[in-house]
Amino acid sequence: MTNSECLAKYERYLADEKKASRNTLSSYLRDIRQFGDYLDANTDVDYVTAGEEELNGYIDHLRAAGKSVATVSRNIASLKNFYVWMKLHGYVEANPTGKLVPDKAMHKLPEILTAEEVELLLSQPECTDRKGYRDRAMLELLYATGIRVSELIGLDVTDVNLSAGIINCRGRDKVRSIPLYPKAVKALKDYVDFIRPEMIASPSERALFVNVGGERMSRQGFWKIVKSYQQKAGIEKDITPHTLRHSFATHLLENGADLHSIQEMLGHADISSTQIYSQLVKKQLKDVYNKAHPRA
């Protein structure tokens, strides 16, 4: 079996059996394809015959090329998943990735916005045209719920219950209902009632948020929207769509919400993923102490 045939079978498995998201599918296939390119250029083996020596050589190659700890660790995870599938389907007798160990990363705390910076960012879209109403609704919804960008652009108009003040978000493994604050409800109502009907390309369009062509908004499109309003607001922090998710969680924790409730709203499978926000709050308190205490 050639590398290309193997990769095609793996792609079908990820898409049809694992129901992997488009982003996950793209990431896994890119990592495995690059490993195949390395094998072609540096060895006389393929996916099926590669062993520990070739795999270790590839990981060393990534490190020598200056790839980040996160990139190397992601590649290791991709290769491990790939060879678990290979062994499960009898394409290899033994999994050669057993001794690959991800590098230990320095856990960098995420960037967050202050409450004042959030207000400044959310006030940037001007509700004078369709785009302004749409952008205001998207930013308000993102900060109101802390959902992932993929979940935001994946929302259908039927996922919004404005009378109840909630959205139903289809996450990675389940649907979760998340409440909305009144300003977010109003921004969404204005958009859904008056703006969206004029923007959609077809009456059958299900997407909640659409681009200027009337079709579902893309991740790249929303990324550009966030960056443009960051520049307009004059906020120097490097804001990404995920920044509002981090800010949502941190601000809830600062104001007394418990970790398990935040975990549920964020859709984290493990509470350890949510605990990083406790570290963020502690760091902020320490920074305030160091700046304000006369003997610090």
Q: How would you summarize the topology of this molecule?
A:
Blueprint (H helix, E strand, L loop, with lengths): L2 H15 L4 H21 L9 H13 L4 H20 L26 H8 L7 H16 L3 H6 L5 E2 L4 E5 L4 E5 L2 H18 L19 H15 L7 H14 L4 H8 L4 H4 L1 H17 L4
Antiparallel strand pairs: 1-2, 2-3
Helix pairs in contact: 1-2, 2-4, 6-8, 6-10, 10-13
Could you please describe the fold and organization of this structure?
The chain has 296 residues and is mainly alpha-helical. The protein folds into two domains: 86 residues, Orthogonal Bundle (DNA polymerase, domain 1), CATH 1.10.150; 177 residues, Orthogonal Bundle (hpI Integrase, Chain A), CATH 1.10.443. The chain is 59% helix and 4% strand. The chain contains 13 helices and three strands, in the order H-H-H-H-H-H-H-E-E-E-H-H-H-H-H-H. It starts with a helix and ends with a helix.
Helix content: 55-70%
Number of domain units? 2
| Order of strands in the sheet with most strands | 1-2-3
Helical stretch tally = 13
| Helix vs. strand class | mainly alpha
CATH topology of the largest domain: hpI Integrase, Chain A
Mean pLDDT: 90
Distance separating the two termini: 66 Å
The biggest sheet amounts to: 3 strands, antiparallel
CATH superfamily descriptor of the largest domain: Intergrase catalytic core
Q: How large a portion of the residues is in β-strands, by DSSP E?
A: under 5%
Number of strands: 3
Uncertain regions spanning at least 5 consecutive residues: none
Order of helices and strands: HHHHHHHEEEHHHHHH
